[in-house]
Amino acid sequence: MSFSVVEAGNANSKFDDDGRQKRTGTMVTAAAHIITSVIGSGVLSLAWAVAQLGWLAGTVCLIIFSLVTLFTSHLLSDCYRNPRTGERNYSYMDVVNANLGGLQIQLSGIAQYSLLFGITIGYTIITATSMVAIKCGSKEVCHTSENWFMVIYGVMQIVLSQIPNFHNLAFLSLIAAVMSFAYSFIGIALSVTKLIQGNGHIVRSLTGIPVGWKGLTSEDKVWQILSGMGDIAFAFAFSPLLTNIQDTLKSSPPENKVMKKATSLAIFVTTFFYMLCGLIGYAAFGNDAPGNLLTGFSSFKPFWIVDFANICIIVHLVGAYQVFSQPIYAFIESRSSTKWPKSDFITKEYSIFNGKISFNFFRLIWRTSFVILTTVLAMIFPFFNDFVGLLGSIIFWPMTVYFPIEMYIAQKKIPRFSGAWNRLQMLSLFCLIVSLVAAAGSIHGLIISVKKFRPFHTPS
């Protein structure tokens, strides 16, 4: 095994004109990155969300959130290039800095990285749950701690975290996207099978679970409706990743045009699957729709199909973890190299196995520490998904709606109180109200989880 310093000047064809690694991304790879980050295991909770809202409100919420996200994503893609210099913005914060500046840069950074950090912890918990489900199979009683499975997942992420950046994630994202389709299809297919079999008396409603159903009070129904809205809103809270993904695209054709096509394709595909999982899942289970669609098929035979779906969840979240953590890695490493540009520990790249693999000592140590931290927090707070839901409901408005709208207004110099300005502000206000009420529902769920809190204890 030999070590050699990787010199940028040795292969100019491998770099763009700004000195960074040459971009090779296409509409397909960008759409795959988006789908990987959007169609997470949360898609399996949409049947429960629709059960709280009912046929009418559930369908309307899914459509509205998808249309709002599509619209603001297009606005964001137009802000990728600096409006004055035409230079690229490498991250969401760079876009905010170029178009708005001031205090809003810090606010966007706090919102973005808090969300991404919370999601990585949530994915650790969810993956461990799927691992436990595979081990327990169809057993009615199975006492298995999730902690060791979280450790296993953490070890895998330590290895994968050494992938330098988004440019090297295309293959992993494509695999993860295929896995997300697989378990979504399985959940849908099992729901259709249950519908055809017609097992039991299924109760459904235009307005969701009625008051009095299994002791449901009016207050509980309100909280559950808000939680359902939070689930749907969180499913579309992926805007912080879009600039990083857009920065993988080739410079020609123009990145904003390709990105609009990629986001349109990705959001159409994900909304289609959201509708199928949510509506067909609700049709299959009615008011008894489980929080995780796959847990409703514990008696399904052959059970290996459910096991395979859980394997697909695991593979998908292994890739999705990296998609969500890469912006955090890039932010820390960019700031560090800027502050200490002469430090070999931070900036020097080494190649091993005849240049097939490169690594950096700072990247090795800091990314490993990051994965360890997220794994430990997941083990200490196994209800962290409630907190992630709270983060999603709070951050949906600023990251998906407010900043894209304000940056677009600034870039296009739309006059204050003009017709276009008023319409954009009304959309922003509507989404703010929705985010606040959804956050209230998440806070209520978080309080209930905290009351049951026991450190390093996970459900068995």
Structural description of this entry:
Strand 2 and strand 3 (357-359) form a beta hairpin. It contains 14 helices and three strands. The model is unreliable at 1-11 (pLDDT under 50). A three-stranded antiparallel sheet has the order 1-2-3. The protein has 460 residues and is mostly helical. The chain has helices at residues 27-38, 46-77, 92-99, 103-136, 147-160, 170-197, 218-235, 242-246, 255-285, 304-339, 344-347, 361-380, 384-412, 419-451; strands at residues 4-5, 350-352, 357-359. The protein is globular. One of its GO terms (cellular component) is membrane. This is Solute carrier family 36. It is found in: Membrane. Residues 23-448 form the Amino acid transporter transmembrane domain. Its main location: membrane.
What's the overall average pLDDT, rounded?
83
- Strand runs, count: 3
Structural class: mainly alpha
Give the termini distance in whole angstroms: 45 Å
The biggest sheet amounts to: 3 strands, antiparallel
Strand content: under 5%
Residue ranges: pLDDT <50 for 5 or more in a row?
Answer: 1-11
**Rg over CA atoms:** 22 Å
Helical proportion, percent range: 55-70%
Query: Overall 3D geometry?
Result: globular
Written as H for each helix and E for each strand, in order along the chain, the element string is EHHHHHHHHHHHEEHHH
**Number of DSSP helical runs:** 14
Placed side by side, the strands forming the largest sheet appear as 1-2-3
InterPro entries: AA_transpt_TM
Subcellular location: Membrane
Protein name: Solute carrier family 36
Domain Amino acid transporter transmembrane: 23-448
